[in-house]
Amino acid sequence: MPWTRRHLLTIEELNLHEIEQIHTTATAFKKILGRSVKKVPALRGKTIVNLFLEPSTRTRMAFDMAAKRLSADVIAFDAASSSTTKGETLRDTAENIRALGADMIVIRHAAAGSPLYLSRLLDIPIINAGDGAHEHPTQGLLDTFTMIEHLGSLRGRKIVILGDILFSRVARSNIHALTKLGAAVTLVGPSTLVPEWFTALGVKVSHDLRSALADAEVVMLLRIQHERQSSGHFPSLGEYTSMFGLNKTRAGWLNPKAIIMHPGPINRGVEIDSELADGPRSVILEQVTNGIAVRMAVLYLCSGGQPEHVMPAE
Predict the structure, then answer these.
(1) Which residues neighbour 46 within 8 Å (Cβ) at sequence distance 6 or greater?
(2) 270 close to 37: Cβ distance less than 8 angstroms
(3) DSSP 209-243
(4) Which of 108, 165, 178, 255 is 20 to 30 A off residue 263, Cα-Cα?
């Protein structure tokens, strides 16, 4: 089946075949990134605007590098020095960007649903780089891509996501991707951050860290999303760490072959100790590297490319 989507708004709306198409395309681009000449002309002449209205390091840089590796022209939107500080609406900002000749917009915004809103206003592809606590689809795609590189098929594999699930767009995108790929997902953390209603998404909920880690093949740590919490959901960071932080002792409860993941930014000493974040089980930096290939795949496909047309590696 050909790729037919113009936008990437959520993983929830993707089917299994579409997720696999993105992964297949990312695999081809990752091979290209290993060449001495890392650029391909797939999007030459196209202009991509990175419209980031929330702070970002990894995602913004990865989209920027992905677009440049595809030979696109890239404009980074600086919210702090833009007319949004004068009260300009998202609609006016986006319509002005389109009027200036942009061919695609990558948007990060604090309001859930912002990418969907723009996709209904504009006639160019919209890529969701994170909308509030809703979804972060390219993160979920790069995370599952990284897992597959280490585990092969994820069907039946036991994946633990540990931390602030309630306010995490990364968790939601990973839940949708992992369940579609057939993984067995367990969410772990304090009951205030991992409520039972998440089971409606086809996952298990646990508040017992030791039993959840015992048979996990992947453990993904999530930071505490202070900027999205309106009230305290646990007494203190110290108490959270004492109960749910991943340290050397608790890592000993894991399967010896289990890998450790984190989408960043890491709060060292809170959700994970530095010894583990930098240790041999950690694939955190692999996630960052894979984020370029996956975002190249998304930009390429949503611009009208097809997986079978990706230029082979030398």
Answers:
(1) 72, 73, 103, 104, 303
(2) no
(3) HHHHHHT-SEEEE----GGG-SS-SSS-HHHHHHH
(4) 255
**Residue 116 to residue 131: CA distance in whole angstroms:** 10
> Which residue, among 222, 232, 108, has the nearest Cα to 165 in the 3D structure?
222
**pTM exceeds 0.85, yes or no:** yes
Report the CATH number of the 137-287 domain: 3.40.50.1370
Amino acid present at 233? H
68, 39 in Cβ contact below 8 A?
Answer: yes
Q: What letter does residue 312 receive in the DSSP assignment?
A: P
pLDDT digits (tens, 9 = 90+) for 45-84: 999 999 999 989 999 999 999 999 999 999 998 777 677 7
Take residue 311 and report the two structure tokens written for it. Answer: 């230029």
User: Is pLDDT of 314 > 90?
Assistant: no
- Residue 165 CA to residue 176 CA, distance in Å, equals 13
Vertex 239: Cα angle to 235 and 241 (nearest 5): 135
Give the model confidence (pLDDT) of 252-300 as tens digits: 999 999 999 999 999 999 999 999 999 999 999 999 999 999 999 999 9
Q: Which CATH number fits domain 16-135+291-309: 3.40.50.1370, 2.60.40.1120, 3.40.50.2300, 1.10.150.130?
A: 3.40.50.1370
Domain with CATH 3.40.50.1370 in the chain: 16-135+291-309, 137-287
